[in-house]
Amino acid sequence: MYTFFLIAYLLIAICLISLIMLQQGKNSDMCSSGAISSTTLFGSSGSDNFITKTTGILATIFFIINLIIVNITANVFNVKNKKWENISESTKNFKNIKTYENINDIPK
C-alpha cells in the first residue's frame, strides 16, 4: 500500500511540475504569436483554463496523498520503535545536573 501511494505521489509530482512549466505568464497575451495561439489544440483561452483546473486538482491530490504517506509512516514508526510509551525515561539524565542560582557561584 505504501509503495502504491509513493509511486502515485512521484507521478503526480512529475505531472505537476510539467503542468506548471506549461502555464503561460500573465503578460504572455502581448506576444507576437497571437495568431498562432488561436489555432492551438485548446483554442485561444481554453488551454489556460484547462491547465489551471488540472493543476489545482493535481495539487489537491498531491497534498492528500502526502498526508496519507505521512500517516502510514508515522504508524509504522510508532509500532516498531515505541519511543513515546514512557517519556520520563529520557529525563533521568537531567536529574543529576547541578544548577547555580547566583552567577557568582559558577566556577571559573
UniProtKB/TrEMBL annotation:
Pfam families with a match to the protein in the record: SecG
Compartments where found: Cell membrane
Main subcellular location of this protein, as a coarse class: membrane
InterPro entries: SecG
Regions crossing the membrane: 56-77
Keywords attached to this entry: Cell membrane, Membrane, Protein transport, Translocation, Transmembrane, Transmembrane helix, Transport
Record keyword DNA damage present: no
Signal peptide: none
Superkingdom field: Bacteria
Membrane topology: Multi-pass membrane protein
Role description: Involved in protein export. Participates in an early event of protein translocation.
Family: Belongs to the SecG family.
Protein name: Protein-export membrane protein SecG
Species this chain originates from: Candidatus Providencia siddallii
Lineage of the organism: Bacteria, Pseudomonadati, Pseudomonadota, Gammaproteobacteria, Enterobacterales
The gene coding this protein: secG
